[in-house]
Specification:
Layout (H helix, E strand, L loop, with lengths): L14 E2 L12 H17 L4 H8 L6 H8 L3 E2 L3 H8 L2 H13 L1 H11 L3 H12 L8 E2 H10 L4 H16 L9 E2 L12 H7 L14 H13 L13 E5 L6 H4 L3 E3 L8 E3 L3 E2 H6 L3 E2 L12 E5 L8 E4 L1 H9 L3 H15 L1
Antiparallel strand pairs: 1-2, 3-4, 5-9, 5-11, 6-7, 8-10, 10-11
Amino acid sequence: MIFRFVLIFLFISFNAYSTDCEKPKMPTEYEWSSWLSTIKKEALDKGISQNTILKHLNTIKPQSKIIMRDRCQPASTMTLDEYLFYTITKDKIFAGKNFLKKHNDILKEIGEYFKIQPRFIVAVLGMESYYGRNQGKINSILAITTLAFDRRRSDFYKKQLFAALEILDKNLVPNGELKGSWGGAVGMTQMIPTTFLETAYDWDGDGIDIWNSYADALASTANYLTSLDKNPWSNNSTWGREILPPKNISSSFFDSIKQINPKGCGAVKRRSIPKTLSEWSRLGFTKINGDPLPIRDDLEARLIMPDGIDGRMFIVYPNYKNILYYNCSSYYAVSVGLLSDKISN
């Protein structure tokens, strides 16, 4: 999965700060240099060149503001509708439509190669960086090294640090300087370094560049969405749709919705056991406009309720799970799906 630290947490008016939010006690110079010496040795053992290690780690200092950003992420109290109000705006839909039109040829080629509908690639880019416009300007090594030292997620960020050093060591960044979000995500795709090394794709043949090359950014997104083990993307179905439950259905039916924690996805999701789309239709679930659901016995579907039984309900197909792995949030995955629908209409 791709680790993300963006978007909705910026809207403080709908959130309460984390109870773990406290000013961090910064290390002494000895503590920092001692820890950094160990990191340098580990990086060298992993094959990172001495030159890269010295260039990027020798003068680096931990940043309290980075630790504060990580510890003080607001605890969201938003509803799905409030989240969608901020993430699927008229200007983002308009820009997405124009993006689809402007890059139609390359999107068609990438879509056919990876067997994925272009609108989903564009929707992810829209959610992650507003189609490449908002990529972040923080020095990634500075941010990641600070978070690797901090106790909260040290193991995770040590992996990201070594991956980021490898990216620089292999000269995979066009200008030699790795920049992105405060949490270490980079490029139009906002990939974390380990994911970059695993799935970043050089579509135009002149080196991977997810910062400046739309072709590479789009292909990298498509490669990630379609390369998940045991869950191939299906370009013969969509992500899902909003639905209405039958009026006479018992509330006990919804008690069967289980808490499922997908492998590699930290957030627990409320999803039902799978049924065919035809089975959901026979139970009386309909499209949001009241029309019957399509009759398909070959398509697995699950019921999700991001805000619980009193909130909006969706039937989601296997492709939804792939989007969920890009960012482990049901709000995010639904937003990508809805945005993809709107920019393609």
